Amino acid sequence: MPPRPKQNESEVSQELLDRSGSRQKRSSADRLENCIVRESIPIFNANTLPIATLRKYQNVFKLRTQVNSSSNDALVNAVQRHFNALPVKEYDMIVQFLYTVKNKDKTFRRYFHNEIA
Questions:
Q1: Where are the domains of the chain?
Q2: How far apart are CA 111 and CA 117, in angstroms?
Q3: Is the model's pTM score more than 0.90?
């Protein structure tokens, strides 16, 4: 069998093993086919929530609404503005969610060496 010609790095990275063990070259379109691209972040719509839920949200976060406008519209606007203004750290939310699921709604407590009293 004659020696194989040397391949550059891009050709080597494009060669992949499939399940049968044979080597295949994939085009750039095939590689992009498996990528998940987020076009935009899903937008929170407070209009879809029931009024009882909005009132609970208002009580928990102590939101103030305008007195002279209709109560439902003002409540929806206040909740929408407050929710959009909240800074969210995705990593912390994922850790807290996994901890809560695993430990059945117990409170998540993180202690660092300098915080232990």
A1: 46-102
A2: 10
A3: no
